[in-house]
Amino acid sequence: MNDPTGPHTASPRTTSRRRRPRRRKALIALLVIGCLVAVGGILTGRYLGSLEDAYEKRSVVSLDRGASDGERPQGEDGNGQNILLLGSDQRAREDAADQGVSGQRSDTMMLVHVPEDGSAAYIVSFPRDLQVEIPGHGEDRLNAALAYGGVPLAVSTVEDYTQTPIDHVALIDFEGIQGLVDTLGGVDVQVPESFERDGMQFTEGTQNLDGEEALTFARERKHLEGGDFARNENQQQLLKGITSELISGNTLSSPGKMRDTVAALSPYLTTDEGLESTEIVRLGLDNRNLRSSDLTFPAAPHGDPFTTSGGASVVASDEEGMDSLRTALAEDSVDDYAADHAE
Fold it and tell me: Residues annotated as region Disordered (predicted)?
C-alpha cells in the first residue's frame, strides 16, 4: 500500500508553493506588457501630436461654393473616393497678372480615384490649357479656374466637367516640391525624354533627382518636343518617384522622417477643411497596402490644340472620351477604363 505522504505525492502545501511562482511570472509578464503598451501609447501620442502640429501649418479652404447649377454632383456609396491634386507655380502668378487675371493658375491638375476596395490608385492628369466651362466665367483654360475663384472654383469646375463629386482637394506650391524631395533624400524618376535646363542634364531613363532638379524637371516644357503634354508626363513620373519613396520602408518605418516630410510640405499646402490630420491618418491606414506598382496613370481624354478667335492657344475637349471616364468614375470601374486608355 502506498503511503499518501510518500515522496511521490505532493502535499497541498507543496502544490501551492509550486504554483505561486508561475502565477507570479504570469503577473509580471502582464505588468511588463501593460507597461510596454502604456509607453507605446505615450510615444505614439507624442508622435501623432508632433505630426499634427507639423500638418497644421497648412492653409485651409472651404468648399461651400457649389457647381454651376448651385449643387455639387452626388456620388453613390461604395463608388470609391476622388481627390483633386493641384500644383501651382509662384512664377505663374506673374503670367496671370499679365493676362489681366488676379491670383494663381494651376500648372498641374490631377484627379486621383481610389476604388472602394483600396486596391489601387488611378491618377488622371488633365492638360492645363484644356478648354472647359468655368462656372460664372464661360469657356476658358482649365488652369484659369484657380485664378478666377481659388480652390473652390477649381473644384467646382472639375466637378462640372467630370460630373463627379470631389471628396478632398490639396493644392501644393511647386516651391514645396524642392523641400519635400530633399527631405526624402532624393527620388528616383523615370525621365521620358532627355533635355538640359539651367545647367542641369536630364537623361532618358532612371535618374535620381534632388529637390532643385525635381523642381526644374516639373516646370520645364519649352525644351520638350511634346510641350505641355510632355511636361504632364514628367510631372506624373515625378509623382511616381515621390510616392514610391513615401510608401517605402525607409520612410514608413521612420516616424521622424515621416514627421519631417510632413513639416517640409505643410507650409506649401492648402487643403479643404475635411482633410484634417486625423483624416490623413485614416486615408493612410485604409491605403497602407498600396505600392508604387498599384499606381496607374490613365490618359486624360482631350482633343487637338487650336487657337481661339481671341488668339488664345487651347486644347479641345473630347466629350466622347470624357463620357467614358465619367461613367467609369460613377460606377467605380476606372480599372476597366485604365486598361483601355493607358498613358
Answer: 1-21, 296-320
